[in-house]
Each structure stands twice: as C-alpha cells, then as structure tokens.
Amino acid sequence: MTLLTIESSPWHRNDFAVPYPTYFHPSNDNEVFQWQNRMRRQRRRFLFSFAGAPRPNLPDSIRNQIIDQCSASRRKCKLLECGLVGSKCHTPVNVMKMFQSSVFCLQPPGDSYTRRSVFDSILAGCIPVFFHPGSAYVQYLWHLPKNYTKYSVFIPGNSIKSGNASIEKILHRIPREEVVAMREEVIRLISKVIYANPKSRLETLEDAFDIAVKAVLERVETVRRDMREGRNSSLLLMKRCLGSILCWGQTLLNMNGILSLIKQMPTFKLGNRTTNKFNFFIVVVESCSS
C-alpha cells in the first residue's frame, strides 16, 4: 500500500508527500505558460514577506522571532498577520498579491512542519525560505529538486530562535545572479506543484498528479522486480525514495553530493491541531504479484 498525503511521516515508509492544492487549476499548457511569464514580469518591491500567526502554545516555534524581525525590517519585509480578527490573511487574493510582490517568502513550521503557503509562494514565483528540512526537503521527494539550493534558501531555525541570525542580512547578501536563477527555477516548478483542471489535461507538461501517479507506478514495478529477484524491496525502496534522509532530530541531508548535519527541534513534535492536516490523502493499493 502507498499513502499519498500532504505531509508524510518518517516513521512510515509507505507515506509519500504530494503538494498541497493551490488556487490555480489550468485547463491547458498555454494557461500555465501565460502565468509563468506573468510571474517573471512581476515587480517585487519587498525583499521578503511572511503570512502567518504566532504559535504561543508551541515552545519550539520561531514565528514570534520571525514576526519581530519582519516588523523591524518594515521597508524590506511585508507582514500579513493571520492571527488578528478581520485579517486580510484570510482572503486568498491578498496573500497571493503579497507573495507576487516579494523576492523571498518565509516558510517556518506552524502546527506541523509543512504549509500550503509553500506552494502558494512557488505559484507566485516567490523563492521559499525554510527553517527546517521537514518543511519540504524530506517531504516532496517526487516534486521538488534534490538540490534544494536551486529553488530555496535554508536558515537553521535554531539560529533564529537564539537571535544569532538576521533574516534580512542573510537574504540581502545573496548575489543578484543567484536570486535570478533561483526565481527562474521556482517559476519552472509551477507546473509540477499544481493540479490541472480535472475536466481537461495538459499536453506537454506534467502536473503534480501526473508526477505522483508515475512515481507510484515506478514504485510498484520496483517492488515486483525485487520480489522476483528475492531482494529486500523495503530496504531498497527506503534507500531509493528517502536517500536524502539518514536521520531526523539531527537531520543529515545528502543533497548535491554534500553532507551537512543540521541540528533541529525534536522529530515531528506536532501541535494539538495537526491531525486536521492529514484529512487530505490518497491510498493506493498495489498488486505485487508477478
């Protein structure tokens, strides 16, 4: 059995994360190309932005520090506080406009490590900034590049929590040519993280559903082949699909041939509301007979 969910668990090898649904469901390739070109032409007035609310009940949360840094960088950072009554954060068009006007979009963990906002920012051509590898790098292995530096920026969350890192300074130091290359990679990813209109289909592009189906079929074929050859398919699949993860807690990433040890908060320490995030999933039952 394969479980496709918006957030996978490192404890279940049959879990595979797929992108959160966004607001864009194109009916043909041309609609995707037009949107991508529009994102390339966007005037981005803010260096970075954040849409979210504090998490006072989660002691490991860095959202308070992020909100404080964004408020202190008012000319460089656009803040949309979602915890306020009547906040514009709850209107999708306001969130997308903010992302479209920003170079970088901050994506700290919330109730759990992943956020739909990650895919909203990609859709807006905004480079995501992550603070924990569980937010994307060890989740969306089928849909996002293994070399995370191609499309995102990583800032260790503990450096924000301790007050030793300035988000504005880190992002401002990135050379312009690298920023342009990352944004172009993000825009190219748009077709891979959206779900096309189910009443039509894309011709030359693969959407998130196409990629997931292809990966599941490849996984089924791998299991069948390994069973015929008497190999331990479980270990092989874990190595194949989770090769970028050697452990959590202290997460060892192997990306682009570089090993880096990143000390992070305890593995999947979820808040009380996280069970709501697992309501969207697809179960694929595989037949492994030859």
TrEMBL record:
Primary localisation category: Golgi
InterPro entries listed in its UniProt record: Exostosin, Exostosin_GT47
Pfam entry (one): Exostosin_GT47
Alphabetical keyword list: Glycosyltransferase, Golgi apparatus, Signal-anchor, Transferase, Transmembrane
Coiled coil (residue ranges): none
Localization per Swiss-Prot or TrEMBL: Golgi apparatus membrane
Annotated Exostosin GT47 domain residues: 2-169
Source organism superkingdom: Eukaryota
Record's GO cellular component terms: Golgi membrane
A molecular function GO annotation: glycosyltransferase activity
Membrane topology type: Single-pass type II membrane protein
Family: Belongs to the glycosyltransferase 47 family.
Protein name as it appears in the record: Putative xyloglucan galactosyltransferase GT11
